Amino acid sequence: MSVRQLSIFIENRAGRISEITGVLQRYGVSIRGLSLADTADFGIARVVVDEPERAREALERAGFLVRTSDVLCIELADRPGELDHIFKTVASVGIDVQYVYSLVSTYVAIKVEDVEAAESLLAEQSVHLVNQEELSDLSI
Prior knowledge:
This protein has about 140 residues and is of the alpha+beta class. It has a single domain (about 5-110), classed as 2-Layer Sandwich (VC0802-like). About 35% of the residues lie in helices and about 25% in strands. The protein has five helices and four strands. A four-stranded antiparallel sheet has the order 2-3-1-4, covered by helices on one side. It is globular, with a radius of gyration of 17 Å.
């Protein structure tokens, strides 16, 4: 019941993540989940896609270092305590959770270097930015 995740190792510089999404778009691969972690010099983009083997091949052809691994994809009800239940269940048998990220949503959270500049830029492009109140009122 696991799904295949791709971990893509990239330099930490402007535009590098768009190179990944561009490759996937050109090959007709849909991203179902995305996580990006960084250090001072490099980052790791983790993606769950609809066609992992096609995505891996395309990214490697484009020069990216890609590793695959299995992850669990869990559907959660939108109510308090759902994640707590999952975490307590796996912890009760000594299984460590290494990282977590969301899949398949029309909402994404991105951390950028300059929040105010990015906010202005995206607002100029008619991108709807969700504020905290809207996020709190979501019924999923």
